[in-house]
Write a structure and sequence with these properties.
Four copies of one chain form a homotetramer. Chain A has 153 residues and is α+β, with helices and mostly antiparallel strands. Chain A has a single domain, classed as 2-Layer Sandwich (Beta-Lactamase), CATH 3.30.450. In chain A, 42% of the residues lie in helices and 23% in strands. Chain A contains five helices and six strands. In chain A, strands 3-2-5-4-6 form a five-stranded antiparallel β-sheet. In chain A, helix 1 packs across helix 5 and helix 3 packs across helix 4. Chain A is globular, with a radius of gyration of 15 Å. Strand 1 of chain A pairs antiparallel with strand 1 of chain C. Chains A, B, C, D: InterPro entries: GlcG_carb_metab_protein, PduO/GlcC-like, PduO/GlcC-like_sf. Chains A, B, C, D: Pfam families: HbpS-like (PF03928).
């Protein structure tokens, strides 16, 4: 009998670097003040940063984007497509998860080069397409792969 | 005065067999990793199994599909039809039940040959049509009747 | 930079075997009807079984014992000691976690021979000392180590 | 008519430095893996870091210690004293705040040299006296004042 299986998860050092690089990108690109949440493969928070000037709900939204992506196994773009097709299913999962399913861009799965799931990043504060762009910049800064849920080619 | 009435409910042995058979079907059919929840007639969990590789919200969704079917008295197909006709009613019941109404395929009532309600099965992890197919395979493996809420002929 | 770290988690096959062995022990020992929840290292449910005759809250209690042990990093015996010393701290964490901290025997961490954390088992239905005894029987049936939070020798 | 008043709050740069310095102290002192949450004066999260190996509830507890200190206006030592005198009041506020009142050491208010409130730090993972010690090290690393709620001399 196979008793166990292995999971690979983001280290603190990696998560912290992703968070700082996400905000560095946002500053360089002249974005509005952002918040960024980095979750490990268990869905627990590893690193979080919020810039000065963010509004009050940024933690809930950033963490909810990341946790919803991990909860469903898809990046925000795919969640948004599915929400368009099945709005009442999304409503149900939002209620089941205390709101932790935010079906827009800016929730991004983190994978290694082999496609193994390592964690997720959520960003909030700008247009959701810019939130996603900042998250991708953070993830690629450490050489990992950002899975935004884009349509398969 | 009639003091009592009878309930008929799935036994543990039956529920466990349904859960194992649901996953056996999924493996044979090459489905994505699934979770399966089997509830007794009271709505309490009798058996649950989650394959390796499921995302974080699979318990909530599988159990929510089964409980929602029992809660409303219809399988997922009928819940989905009614959700299309009465979306605000479905929203209200989702809020009342903490999200435990998931109006898509994959929540299936379990009945005996006489149509008596015995419990419900919920499956999550694949396309909802495949979730339902796996639940039906589990229920029929013990000789019981799967009520998916299909349109009456 | 160390990007990732590894987690080891219970397989479905292992979790299912633990659940069945827990109940087999309970039947042999003449215990009251039990429920058993087996969680992986992420805190998500892998396997659950409830015997015929359990009362309505057994899932919540069994899963809450296991999740509370994983949440705090201690087996139920140590949680019970700490609850005696710091009852208001326990109250706070119960509220923070939706009640998923049950500081009595019957929440048991699962470790391998090297002490690595793999998941947790929660049992409910009997006196808590018997709940724990059944969980330990389940865990040792697969050759893994049960950490009940007993005082260090 | 006085239309406005001023708030002074921790900047992101300051909050991030406090979080990193808290964990640096913990590593040097050989503590168990910690999580640290830094809140601004509004009670919103500015910076959070969790070391590898923390158990699942560390965010909730660390953030709950910091938010509870801000919510009541006292550091954890004073919250603990008051909890001893008024346990039912503490229970009520825990229920009102979803558990975000954790009346033990490790929730520390951040003040400037004039005593002005700027935010709060919460630490979880070790004995609460060590949690507090790490939070104080983080706060003093930026030249600010740690208010642990110690008895007035």
């Amino acid at each position: 009998m196979k008793l166990t299986h292995f999971l690979t998860s983001l280290s603190l050092e990696c998560a912290s670097q992703i968070a700082h690089a996400t905000l560095a990108h946002a500053r360089q690109a002249g974005m509005l003040p952002l918040a960024v949440a980095v979750l490990d493969v268990r869905g627990t928070l590893k690193a979080y940063l919020a810039e000065d000037g963010t509004s009050l709900y940024r933690q809930e939204i950033a963490q909810g984007k990341a946790l919803g992506a991990l909860g469903m196994g898809f990046g925000g773009q795919e969640l948004e497509r599915r929400a368009g097709l099945m709005p009442l299913f999304m409503n149900a999962v939002q209620a089941l998860s205390g709101g932790n399913l935010v079906p827009v861009q800016g929730g991004v799965l983190v994978r290694d080069a082999q496609g193994e799931l390592l964690g997720a990043v959520g960003v909030s504060g700008e247009l959701s397409s810019k939130d996603e762009q900042a998250a991708v910049a953070g993830i690629t800064s450490v050489g990992l792969v950002a899975d935004c849920g884009a349509p398969k080619p």
